[in-house]
């Protein structure tokens, strides 16, 4: 009697995939007919006390596609159950559901070749995953992570704080607007001039033109909020080594900094003096520099998302193999800083023969500090072999 296929091969065949097909970084898209069939293939455990979705059958057919699809995903991953009527309506609206499958017989995970699960409604099918040389796994979407053997080899520098991080998507930081180039300078003025015969003054030297004032800096943009953590199930047939795990909501994005005020323009040069026979008209003063613009206001940081649901089931290879799990929170984004006031423009040079330099422009005011910090999210629910982690 031939040997029966191993669990990895069984899962692959059940999904309709070639067991020798490795997905690499991009998953295989498996279209699944039927929502309950999708739940069966994703091997999502049934939750005994599952809250019911508020979407009725009528609403399921009427709401926009993204909201309806998310309600279906929540049902599949055991977050909120659809009623029988709503489920039938969802089957009518979504005859096929996409299942993103990451598959490999042997997946080595390093700092330069991490494993990131970023496609929603994901399933992994790994025979062996080996984390080494600072490698890490990052999951930010609803997923069932399945591997028969996970090996953690210590050593190597890692950009991640944990071997496995399950988190909501972080918010984006607000942009900081650019500072405008210096404002326009004042015009240089004409000098004194003699009449046609050179014995008297036709006109005196003119004062240099004023430098233009700087424009106020633009306000920093607000960050965006972090998303709530996903629903993730982790099934490890055998764990070799110590695996560190972190769960949290998405961090809030920080606010952008206010732009500095524009520098004021320089004053124009005063006209030069001259000699007209017995008359010596003086040079004119330089024009004053323009005032610097005020700085832009600070942008606000946004709130972090709340933690999601993480259930890990594993079997240790030995007494030295274990999980170290942190049930953390997403951190709210910091507010930005207000922009500095723009420098004043330099006073224009005085004209020759007695002209004085113009006064410098004043410095603009610091921008308003109106941004606020985002708040941290709440902890999610984490279970390890059905035991809660606080």
Number of helical regions? 5
Integer average pLDDT? 94
Report the biggest beta sheet as strand number plus sense, adding barrel if it closes: 8 strands, mixed
Number of strands: 15
Distance between the termini: 49 Å
Strand order of the largest sheet: 1-2-4-6-10-12-14-15
| Secondary structural class | alpha/beta
Count of distinct structural domains: 2
Q: Bin the strand percentage.
A: 15-25%
| Proportion of helical residues | 10-25%
Shape: elongated
- Specify Rg, calculated over alpha carbons: 34 Å
What order do the helices and strands follow?
Answer: HEHHHHEEEEEEEEEEEEEE
Model regions low in confidence, pLDDT < 50 over at least 5 residues: none
Commentary on this structure:
This protein is an alpha/beta fold and 390 residues long. It folds into two domains: 35-94, no CATH class; 161-389, no CATH class. The protein contains five helices and 15 strands. The chain has helices at residues 7-14, 35-42, 57-62, 65-76, 84-93, and strands at 28-33, 96-109, 115-117, 122-131, 137-139, 143-152, 164-167, 193-194, 201-203, 231-240, 242-248, 309-316, 322-327, 381-384, 387-389. It has an eight-stranded mixed β-sheet. It has a five-stranded parallel β-sheet with strand order 3-5-7-11-13, with no helix packed on it. Strands 8-9 form a two-stranded antiparallel ribbon. The two termini are 49 Å apart.
């Amino acid at each position: 009697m031939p040997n029966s296929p191993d669990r990895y091969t069984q899962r692959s065949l059940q999904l309709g995939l070639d067991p020798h097909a490795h997905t690499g970084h991009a998953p295989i898209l498996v279209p699944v007919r039927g929502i309950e069939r999708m739940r069966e293939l994703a091997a999502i455990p049934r939750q005994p006390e599952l809250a019911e979705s508020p979407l009725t059958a009528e609403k399921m057919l009427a709401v926009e596609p993204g909201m309806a699809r998310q309600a279906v995903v929540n049902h599949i991953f055991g977050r909120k159950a659809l009623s029988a009527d709503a489920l039938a309506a969802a089957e009518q609206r979504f005859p096929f559901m996409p299942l993103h499958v990451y598959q490999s017989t042997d997946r080595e995970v390093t700092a330069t070749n991490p494993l990131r699960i970023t496609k929603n409604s994901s399933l992994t099918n790994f025979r062996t995953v080996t984390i080494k040389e600072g490698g890490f796994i990052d999951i930010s979407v609803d997923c069932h992570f399945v591997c028969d053997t996970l090996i953690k080899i210590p050593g190597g520098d890692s950009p991640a704080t944990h071997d496995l991080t399950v988190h909501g998507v972080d918010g984006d930081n607000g942009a900081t607007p650019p500072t405008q180039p210096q404002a326009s300078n004042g015009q240089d003025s004409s000098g004194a001039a003699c009449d046609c015969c050179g014995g008297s003054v036709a006109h005196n030297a003119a004062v240099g033109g004023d430098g233009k004032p700087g424009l106020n800096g633009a306000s920093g943009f607000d960050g965006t909020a972090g998303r709530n953590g996903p629903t993730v199930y982790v099934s490890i047939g055998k764990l070799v080594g110590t695996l560190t795990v972190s769960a949290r909501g998405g961090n809030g994005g920080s606010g952008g900094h206010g732009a500095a005020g524009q520098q004021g323009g320089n004053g124009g040069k005063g006209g030069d003096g001259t000699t007209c026979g017995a008359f010596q008209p003086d040079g004119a003063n330089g024009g004053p520099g323009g005032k610097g613009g005020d700085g832009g206001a600070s942008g606000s940081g946004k709130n972090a998302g709340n933690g999601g649901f993480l259930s890990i089931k594993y079997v240790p290879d030995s007494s030295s193999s274990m999980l170290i799990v942190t049930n953390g929170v997403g951190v709210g984004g910091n507010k930005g800083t207000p922009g500095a006031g723009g420098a004043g423009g330099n006073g224009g040079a005085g004209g020759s023969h007695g002209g004085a330099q113009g006064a410098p422009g004043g410095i603009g005011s610091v921008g308003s500090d109106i941004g606020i910090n985002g708040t941290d999210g709440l902890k999610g629910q984490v279970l390890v072999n059905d035991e809660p982690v606080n």
